[in-house]
Amino acid sequence: MPVDFTDSAGDAEYRARLRDFLRRHDHELEHSDSEYLSEPGVERIEELRRTQALLYDGGYVGVTWPREYGGQGEGAIRQAIVTEELARASIPGLVNHLGIGMCGPTIMAHGSEDQKQRYLRRLLRADDMWCQLFSEPGSGSDLAASRTKAVRQDDGTWRVDGQKVWTTFAQYAAYGILLARTDTDVPKHRGLTMFVIDMSTPGVTVRPLRQMNGASEFNEVFFDGVVISDAERLGEVGEGWRVALTTLMNERVAIGGAGNELGMRTDSLVARARERLPHFSTGEQVRLREQLGRVLVENLAIRYTGYRRLTALARGQTPGPEASAGKLSAVRAAIDGAELGVRLSGPDAAFARAADGDWRWHTTQASMPGLAIAGGTDEVLRNIIGERVLGLAPEPTPGKAAR
Q: What sequence ranges are listed for the domain Acyl-CoA dehydrogenase/oxidase C-terminal (predicted)?
């Protein structure tokens, strides 16, 4: 598919307006040259929420979303311009990225008009943070094996009991989308239903999990007799698997999208290599330069493959299984880049930070295993690519034929 990398006259004007906006508001926006603004454990959520609100008020959040739901009604190319310019200005990713990338699109596709009006505009502005309540202890990557139960009561409400785990930002979220089992007498893929849940509802308990990178982004979430109105259901009863697929596909697009380098800008890595390489022997310099070259090529391939996907989106095509390949490649490149950043620390690589106090590379490296699981494990995504792209025979899975 041919791709034109030159801005049209309208896009060039849009880019210039955005650069001017970022310049004028530079002192009001949070900045970072890595995934983290500060040491892990010192999250700056409120500062990031203010940054997202300012960008939204300027018209640069929800670029492709419909105007009636708080968006700008622009095309995918304009969203790519915003992503590029925010990176260029060292503005970190939007703090409510789970809401924008996963929860919001799910509500737009399956929610009622009342839900769309109540939730989407506030989500874009980060007035409300969102989380995604899918994974459970003991279920691994088998999302359809969800055991959290939602039982309909005589008054039409639903009583929820169970547990979720690895829920990102649940401790900050006002709302979440919850996948629960509503029927145990049908094949597992048919007995699920999706809900919007107010995280302040009595019976919801959030317990942060300390990760090996020092942060507490993930959480356990417990539900003990939590009552949810039927008006907060997303889609029909028993259609939760289909609704969840909408969420997962958008998640993979978000993680593996064009220009997304998963918290590590390659210009930062190049600057670190330029500074650190003279401290190594000639032979080691050669090996490190080769590794740097591979990382840069990987990221260029991801970027330009993403541009092809953007071209398809701009033509009105729906993201398909290629998003799985993009996510796989993006995580692999991020792992390679983080490993190189740590290796460039030399003898200090064994410690949590370099001698110069730079902790970012060690923290990013420690974050990568969790990111490799988000949006589907590597094994699940390879199965999707094998079956839907390469046309290979599906892997035998108990209960899969009964969907």
A: 238-390
Residue 364: which of 254, 292, 266 has the closest Cα?
266
* Predicted confidence (pLDDT) per residue in 129-181, tens digit: 999 999 999 876 678 889 999 999 999 999 999 999 989 999 999 999 999 99
Answer positive or negative: Cα dihedral of 91, 297, 252, 371.
Answer: negative
Annotated active-site residue in 43, 251, 261, 298: 251
Instruction: Supply 320's token pair.
Output: 């398909």
Among 71, 122, 102, CA closest to 178: 102
Q: What b-and-e string marks burial along 16-53, b requiring 16 or more CB atoms within 10 Å of the CB?
A: eebeebbeeeeeebbebebbbbeebeebbeeebbbbbb
Residue type at 355?
A: A
In the numeric block, the tokens 């145990």 are attached to: 184
Is 251 part of the annotated catalytic residue set?
yes
Neighbours of 187 (CB within 10 A): 14
CATH number of the structural domain 130-238: 2.40.110.10
Cβ atoms within 10 Å of 240's Cβ, excluding its own: 31
Distance CA 151, CA 163 (A): 15
Extents of the domains making up the chain: 9-95, 130-238, 256-396
Q: Give backbone dihedrals phi and psi of 233, rounded to 5 degrees, phi first.
A: -75, 140
The string of DSSP letters for 370-398 reads HHHHTTS-HHHHHHHHHHHTS-PPPPP-T
How far apart are the C-alpha atoms of 252 and 239, rounded to whole Å?
21
- Predicted confidence (pLDDT) per residue in 292-304, tens digit: 999 999 888 888 7
Its CATH class, for the domain covering 256-396, is mainly alpha
Q: Which residues pair with 197 in a beta bridge?
A: 176
To 10 degrees, the CA torsion angle through 331, 337, 338, 342? 160
* Closest residue by Cα to residue 207 from 220, 226, 224, 222: 220
Helical residues (DSSP H) of 61-213, grouped into ranges: 76-88, 97-98, 104-110, 113-124
